[in-house]
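F.,

This is the one I mentioned.
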C-alpha cells in the first residue's frame, strides 16, 4: 500500500508541471458548471479615459471607485430596507431627519408612476430608456437626449423575498407602491413569492410534490419528514406552504393516531422537521411554514419530548463515530465538548496526517452538538472534504468568500440575512482542510464573525475547530521563482 491508495494522482502531469497535484474525476455537468460559473460571472467591462495631450496623467483612485459605484443598475430593495449612508459621528436623530424625505431609485419609481400616467407604460428595467436619475433631487426626470438601456441588479433565489420582488418588477408595468406588487386580481398576498406564483412567473413544485407522493407509499412518516426537510434545505421549493398542506396527512400519520389535538400533532410534526433542518445547518424560521407553539406549558413539554426523541438518530450517529476514535482523538473530543458544555469560546486546531481519522472526530463532534439541540456548522476548503461531513459545505459557500482576497477583505454578509442569523446561532464551526486556505480567508472570517456577533473575541466568540495537515502544504518562499 502506498499513497496511490490515498490521493489520486497522474504521473504524467506531475512530471510535466513538476509540482504537487491532486486529480479528481469530473463525471457530471454539475462539476463543469461549478468551474465555469467563476469564469462567466458577467459581461466584460472596459473603462476608457481621454486625457489632454502634454499634461501629466493623475489617477484619482477614490473618484474612479465612486464613479464606478454610481454608474450602476437601479437598486432593488424590500419595503423600508433601502440603504442608508451616514458618517460615524452622526447622531441617530440627524440620520433619521436626513433620510425622512430621501427616496431610493425604487421608491422614486413608484412616485413617478403616481404623478405621470406616461411613466406607467414602462417596466422598472426599461425606465432608464425614457427617464434619467437625478442624484441631487432623488427623482426620475424625462430623458431629453440619448438612449440608455437599463438592467436590474441581480438577485439570487436564496435571497428569498428580494429575488421575487425583482421578478415582479421585471414583468409588471406602472406599479405605484409595494402593495401593487403584492396584489393579484384584487387579492393582496402576504409575500412577493406568493404574488409571483399567482401570476405564473415561477415554476410550480410538481416534481417535488410527486417525489413526496411516491415516498409516502412505502416510507414511514419519520422518513418522510426527513425527506421533507431535505427538500427544503437543498431543492429550494417555490411554494413551501402549499407543499406542506398537500402532504400534511402523510407527514403526520403516526402522530394523528397517537394524539387527538390537531394543534399538538402539527406542533410535533414541525418540531421534528426543525431538528432535521438543524442537522443540515438550516433554520425552520427561514421557510414559509406554520409557527411552532411554545407559549403553552404543555406544548413546550411536548417540544422538549419530541426534540429528545428526534435526537436519538443523531445520538446513534454520535456513538458510532465516537467508537472509531483513538485515545488522542478522544482527548481532543473531550476538550472541545468541555468548552461546548461550559460555553467557553476557544479556537482549536486539529493537526494530523491524512488517514489518521480527523473526519471521524468531526462527525462525532457534529452529531453530539446537534443532538443537544445546538447548531453546528461543517465547512471545508474543498468540496471533496465537505462531502465527507454531514451537512458539510465549502467555506467559500458558507462564508461568501470572494475569489480575490486582500489584507482587509470583509465578506458581504448583511446582519439581517439568513446567513448572518445562522452564524450567530452556531455553537461550533468546524473548518476542515483549513491549512489549504489562504491566510486572508481566515482573517476575513475572523473580522466578519466579529462584525456579525458584535463580540471582539477571536471569530466572534465562537468555538472554532480548524483542521488540516501542513505536511501536505508547500512552504511559502517569498519572491521565490
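My design for it:
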Amino acid at each position: 500500500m502506498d499513497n496511490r491508495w490515498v490521493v489520486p494522482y497522474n504521473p504524467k502531469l506531475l512530471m510535466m508541471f513538476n509540482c504537487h497535484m491532486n486529480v479528481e474525476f469530473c463525471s457530471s455537468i454539475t462539476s463543469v458548471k461549478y468551474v465555469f460559473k467563476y469564469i462567466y460571472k458577467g459581461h466584460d467591462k472596459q473603462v476608457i479615459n481621454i486625457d489632454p495631450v502634454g499634461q501629466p496623467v493623475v489617477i484619482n483612485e477614490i473618484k474612479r471607485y465612486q464613479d464606478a459605484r454610481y454608474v450602476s443598475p437601479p437598486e432593488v430593495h424590500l419595503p423600508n430596507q433601502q440603504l442608508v449612508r451616514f458618517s460615524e459621528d452622526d447622531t441617530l436623530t440627524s440620520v433619521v431627519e436626513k433620510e425622512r424625505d430621501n427616496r431610493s431609485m425604487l421608491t422614486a419609481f413608484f412616485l413617478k408612476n403616481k404623478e405621470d400616467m406616461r411613466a406607467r407604460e414602462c417596466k422598472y428595467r426599461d425606465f432608464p430608456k425614457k427617464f434619467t436619475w437625478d442624484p441631487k433631487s432623488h427623482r426620475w426626470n424625462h430623458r431629453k437626449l440619448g438612449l440608455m438601456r437599463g438592467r436590474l441588479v441581480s438577485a439570487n433565489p436564496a435571497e428569498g423575498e428580494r429575488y421575487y420582488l425583482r421578478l415582479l418588477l421585471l414583468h409588471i408595468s406602472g406599479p405605484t407602491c409595494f402593495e401593487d406588487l403584492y396584489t393579484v386580481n384584487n387579492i393582496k398576498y402576504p409575500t412577493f413569492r406568493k404574488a409571483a406564483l399567482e401570476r405564473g412567473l415561477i415554476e410550480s413544485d410538481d416534481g417535488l410534490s410527486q417525489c413526496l407522493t411516491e415516498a409516502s407509499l412505502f416510507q414511514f412518516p419519520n422518513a418522510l419528514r426527513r425527506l421533507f426537510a431535505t427538500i427544503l434545505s437543498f431543492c429550494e421549493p417555490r411554494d413551501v406552504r402549499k407543499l406542506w398542506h398537500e402532504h400534511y396527512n402523510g407527514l403526520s400519520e403516526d402522530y394523528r393516531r397517537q394524539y387527538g389535538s390537531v394543534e399538538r400533532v402539527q406542533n410535533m410534526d414541525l418540531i421534528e422537521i426543525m431538528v432535521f433542518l438543524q442537522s443540515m445547518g438550516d433554520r425552520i424560521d427561514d421557510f414559509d411554514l406554520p409557527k411552532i407553539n411554545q407559549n403553552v406549558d404543555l406544548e413546550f413539554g411536548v417540544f422538549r419530548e419530541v426534540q429528545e426523541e428526534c435526537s436519538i438518530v443523531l445520538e446513534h450517529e454520535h456513538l458510532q463515530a465516537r467508537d472509531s476514535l483513538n485515545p488522542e482523538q478522544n482527548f481532543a473530543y473531550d476538550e472541545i465538548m468541555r468548552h461546548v458544555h461550559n460555553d467557553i469560546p476557544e479556537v482549536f486546531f486539529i493537526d494530523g496526517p491524512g488517514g489518521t481519522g480527523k473526519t471521524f472526530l468531526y462527525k462525532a463532534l457534529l452529531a453530539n452538538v446537534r443532538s443537544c439541540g445546538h447548531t453546528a456548522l461543517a465547512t471545508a476548503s474543498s468540496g471533496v472534504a465537505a462531502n465527507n461531513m454531514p451537512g458539510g459545505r465549502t467555506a467559500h459557500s458558507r462564508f461568501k468568500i470572494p475569489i480575490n482576497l486582500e489584507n482587509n477583505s470583509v465578506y458581504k454578509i448583511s446582519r439581517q440575512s439568513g446567513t448572518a442569523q445562522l452564524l450567530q446561532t452556531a455553537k461550533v464551526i468546524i473548518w476542515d482542510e483549513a491549512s489549504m486556505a489562504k491566510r486572508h480567508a481566515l482573517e476575513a472570517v475572523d473580522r466578519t464573525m466579529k462584525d456579525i456577533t458584535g463580540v471582539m473575541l477571536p471569530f466572534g466568540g465562537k468555538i472554532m475547530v480548524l483542521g488540516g495537515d501542513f505536511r501536505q502544504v508547500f512552504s511559502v518562499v517569498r519572491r521565490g521563482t
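The beta strands are 131-134, 139-142, 183-184, 187-188, 347-351, 375-380, 393-394, 426-432, 463-468.

Talk soon.
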